[in-house]
Amino acid sequence: MHRDYCPILQKPRGFALPPFHAHAMVRFMQILTEMAAVIARNVSKDGFQATPLERVWLVRSSTVTMPMPNVYRPQLCLVVQGQKQVTLGDRVFRYQPGRYGIVTYDLPATGQVVEATPDKPYLCLYLDFDPVMLGELTLRVPPPPGTPFAPIGKTVSDADAGLLDAAIRLLRLLDDPAAMPVLGPLAEQEILYRLLAGPAGARMRHITSSQGRVAQVGRAIAWIQQNFRERFSIERLAAEVGMSPSSLHEHFRSVTAMTPLQFQKQLRLQEARSLMLVQDIDATTAAIYVGYESPTQFSREYRRHFGEPPARDIARLRASPNLAVVA
Questions:
Q1: For the chain, what are the domain ranges?
Q2: Which of 82, 170, 210, 325 is disulfide-compatible with 122, CB 3.0–4.6 A?
């Protein structure tokens, strides 16, 4: 971690800020500092923590972590302090303070905190998207101008002043319980507005859309999640969502950065890992439960995905729970 700071802005050297003017940069750092203080007051230990604000989660990690697979649901992730990276298929997304990520579909990805210390832990704000609130806003907020975007279901961008202002107003409510029921929905709505009006706006609209190829891919994702234990062919999945196999394969990969069968495999492996860790069942039982017919194939794919055979991986997680924070 960099400890050599700029004396004016108190920012680490090499830390890339959005292209603000000098006074805006000072304000940018002030907001991040305040956000970090609010999160630190409200998170007593490492890990995910729910808050009295519905759909708002806070994350803390006082150390770098192992790569931890997880299914990321449609949500905003705004990093306030420290750094992390998320791998989705063959793509790597990097976060640092003031950068936010958008997920528009349930996606299996791997997150890892790459910069954190006990004195300056990784701190992060998550906001799950309310589809009803988002749907109402999409009818009132005109689409942002710009060129067509790649429809991948995850992106990372630099937060602008408007989004940071809205985020700090939401976090301040954690210290003002009386105002929370009235102002919480307004602050959440403002955040969604800023996202819809920003560079991720066109992508956000697909969360509530029921039309088009990306919406069909969304239905394919949901179908696999419900049926990931079953064997299926691309032809069967394509018929379920009303696409040709070639079109489904192309558009599914463009949204998820993986094929439908790779998507299914990640869901199976993550579910099996959770079963072994939480319910203390053996690898063979977990493999059969998630749909594997061959325990040998399961162990081989598990090791390729997690870096260790099942028993050794689970033992490592239990021995070092502080390294297993899902970022």
A1: 22-205, 212-257, 263-323
A2: 82
pLDDT at site 150: 59
Residue from 257, 239, 235, 240 nearest 92 by CA: 257
Question: DSSP code of 112?
Answer: E
Instruction: Band the pLDDT of 151: cuts 50, 70, 90.
Output: low
Looking at domain 263-323, what is its CATH homologous superfamily?
Homeodomain-like (1.10.10.60)
Span 22-205: which CATH code? 2.60.120.10
Nearest to 104 by CA among 221, 224, 277: 221
How does residue 14 score in pLDDT terms, banded at 50, 70 and 90?
Answer: very low
Nearest to 84 by CA among 36, 123, 45: 123
* Per-residue pLDDT band at 3 (split at 50, 70, 90): very low
Give residues with Cβ within 8 angstroms of 132, minimum separation 6: none
Within 13 Å and on the Cβ side, how many CA atoms surround 41?
Answer: 11
Residue 157 has what DSSP assignment?
E
* Per-residue model confidence (pLDDT) at position 21: 67
Polymer length in residues for the chain: 327
β-strands 107-115, 68-72: how paired? Answer: antiparallel
Q: Which residue has the tokens 């700029």?
A: 6
Residue 190 has pLDDT above 50, yes or no: yes
Tokens 């449609």: give the residue. Answer: 74
- Edge to edge, the sheet with strand 83-88 lists 68-72, 107-115, 83-88, 91-95
Q: Which two tokens stand for residue 67?
A: 């790569």
Q: Which of 159, 200, 120 is nearest to 25 (CA)?
A: 159
CA distance 10 to 36: 14
Q: Which helix (H) or strand (E) holds 103?
A: strand 99-103
Helix (H) or strand (E) holding 270: helix 260-278
Residue 90 pLDDT class (50, 70, 90 cuts):
confident
H/E run at residue 69 = strand 68-72
